[in-house]
Write a structure and sequence with these properties.
The radius of gyration is 16 Å and the shape is flat. The protein is built from five helices and no strands.
């Protein structure tokens, strides 16, 4: 989850819930794929569909914008994140 969070912060300068959620679920999709030991794993993907009414309500009321807003000083923030990763922060 931290990787999706850091990627979202690095690209926008602040958290954008929609892109953060999409990045997180795209990174964890392998947990929803069927395996030999658990062939019913795809049923967990239906749990994500249960969140759609909440997401739609947030979008319709303007609480979760489609377009992320950026901050000034984005290059400086990216440099800080790179330096933190270089000295042993989150990869």
């Amino acid at each position: 989850m931290y990787k999706a969070f850091v990627d979202t912060i690095a690209s926008n300068g602040r958290i954008h819930e929609l892109s953060f959620t999409l990045r997180y679920y795209l990174r964890t999709i392998r947990f929803y794929l069927p395996t030999r030991t658990n062939p019913l794993n795809p049923l967990k993907a239906f749990e994500l569909l249960g969140m759609m009414p909440i997401a739609l309500g947030l979008l319709l009321h303007g609480r979760m914008p489609l377009k992320p807003s950026k901050i000034r000083g984005g290059k400086e923030l990216k440099a800080i994140i790179k330096k933190a990763q270089a000295i042993g922060g989150a990869p």
